Amino acid sequence: xxLSRIRLKQIIERELSSLTENEVVTKExxxxxxxxxxxxxxxxxxxxDAALTTASSLESIGALISQGxxxxxxxxxxTNTIEESQTIKEESDGSTKADTQVIxxxxxxxSKLQDIDTSLDYLSSAMTGESPxxxxxxxxxxxxxxxxxxxxx
Length: 153
Description:
Blueprint: H1 5-17, E1 32-36, E2 43-45, H2 48-60, E3 64-65, H3 71-128, H4 132-142
Antiparallel strand pairs: 1-2, 1-3
Helix pairs in contact: 2-3, 3-4
């Protein structure tokens, strides 16, 4: 996903404006640098979490440059990516188990519905005089369009 310099600067400015004053750069605090494709100079932030969030946002749109970005930030991004992929894998494993349970339950439900259909065929047989097999085959072939037998047949 390619972004224009103007759009990228808008995103960076929005991220920076969302930071509180305590998170903004002061000369006494430890600084973390983030290099982007939109600026010639790296962005300097004091707060590690703010720097990591900003770097993560920039990385997601392809605007983060590793050269010039603080190694601590790059390490944290790599660690977060590994943890996120493990979490996604664990969630997908959990959903696979849930999917299997749903399939088993649907199979049981389908079996019960077939039993009910067979019971209805026997009730229909008692009322019409047709065999349950004839009723079941007629419904299978014609569905709801199957006409009941005429009296006298």
